[in-house]
Design brief:
By secondary structure, the protein is mainly β. It is built from no helices and 14 strands.
Length: 185
């Protein structure tokens, strides 16, 4: 048995409006999205082990703000944070008995995360899995049009390859101008 080779292959942004299997998807599979600040959303990422290395994989989400270096995404990150969902999904729950994304190969259930910690290990051996994260862009730390890219790591180690890296573009409405009224008596 050789070294496990992990690759991030696909993704789909989701609304935080249902269970692991019932939440609605945003746009098309593999399409980047514009997302409003302070709105909870979910990101489902497909990873695959391609070398028969039977790798135990601890999925952890990292992010890049405006094309900067990738940094760990936690419940206390500056620009985007993992947050509790509104649907009572337990942290580290299974990501479902069947795949939500269209992909060929053998599917193994992944994990769900909303606390910023790495998900429980999933072992893959020429198989793929999907991990899902509940997230929120922090409105006080970003500007309209900023970008945030995402990559899954194995703990704190980058995967061997990234076919895609999901990107969101921040939507933040400009603050209303302050108006001062002066009255003459």
């Amino acid at each position: 048995m050789g070294k496990a080779v992990q690759a991030q292959q696909d993704f789909w942004f989701r609304n935080d409006d249902g269970s692991i299997t019932a939440a609605t998807f945003m746009g098309a599979q593999g399409s980047n999205q514009s997302i409003s600040v302070d709105t909870k959303f979910r990101l489902r990422v497909l990873t695959e082990e391609t070398a028969g290395g039977n790798g135990a994989f601890a999925a952890h989400l990292f992010y890049s703000y405006n094309s900067g270096a990738y940094t760990t995404l936690t419940a206390a990150s500056t620009h985007v944070q993992e947050v509790d969902d509104d649907n009572s999904i337990a942290d580290d729950a299974s990501s479902g008995a069947s795949a939500q994304l269209t992909y060929s190969g053998t599917y193994v259930a992944g994990r769900y995360s909303d606390d910023g910690a790495a998900a429980t290990d999933v072992s893959l051996n020429n198989q793929y899995s999907e991990v899902e994260f509940c997230l929120q862009v922090i409105g006080t730390a970003v500007a309209n049009g900023d970008t945030i890219d995402f990559r899954v790591y194995d703990g704190t180690t980058a995967l061997d390859s990234y076919t895609v890296s999901p990107r969101l573009t921040v939507v933040k409405e400009a603050a209303a101008p302050r108006r001062i009224f002066i009255t003459h008596l």
